Amino acid sequence: MTADFRNGPALQGILQHLEDERKILTAARRKAISCFVFGVFLTIAVSFFSLLPIWFYIPGIAVLLYTLNLYLKIAPAYLDYRVNFKSRLLKAILKSNYQDITFEPDDGLPEDEFMACQLFTEAPDKYSSKNSVTGSLAKTRFYFSEVNASYKTESTDVKGNRAEKWHEIFKGIIFTADFNKNFNGITLISPENIGSKLVGWFTKALPISNLSGSKLVVLEDPEFNKTFTTHSTDQIEARHILTPAMMNRILFLNKKTKSAVMLSFIASRLYIAFPLESNYFEPPPLSKSILGPSSIDQGLYIVQFMYDIINELDLNTKIRDKN
What is the pLDDT of residue 225? Predict the structure, then answer.
């Protein structure tokens, strides 16, 4: 896929423009670092001579102030570079590879939907979501976004000093799509081994205790029961959703990811939470050429990975029977 987009003259022009921006930023950053090192060295060297008048420090201080001015210019220029990478390059590449996909870097999953998907019980005190990708495959609409949510706790020690601490609720990607069957209840699937390193973040995310009227669902697939815990407000509906074929597909999807996934089936929609550490839609480091073959690979990879979920979970099958 990475070989296709570079052949278009329009995309080549965008790539070259961003590469030129990157080179300018890299040169400016090197200059700023060199000036900073020189300014610090000059100031320290003068300080060894304690009897020298104060004005001997002026050259070193002047160099450091010049360095600060350089950094103040680099910061907004780098922000523009990041914006152009997303809004111009990634948008164009995704459009050339997926005609039915829309990428909006500044849009994300609304906070109320984050809570409504029932995957998390802790309401976030700090919430951000960006890099929204919306698309369709056949008759199935889907979208996903990067999400970062955390909550705050406060404590007071014996001396009356207050301390504030932030705890991560979730960081990663939340994917949602139309499901191919209608249902009225809520079914939640969470990792069985909550204590493992892979799913440690679920200790504050578990929705089970707050799902009113839910009961444990013991399914017919031993491997699925060993990997996941399933709760639902409707036992019959849960089995209607989680057919043997669907359970196999969820197990296959879970094995493809580095961290355990969590799923909810609610309001005839499917939600999947993928805990991830990487930001998949950011430009490569400034030291790395944007013309390299892997400069945008991770962004394309995550889009294709999410795109493939529709086929892997067979969400298009029988969707014509809905309603």
Answer: 92
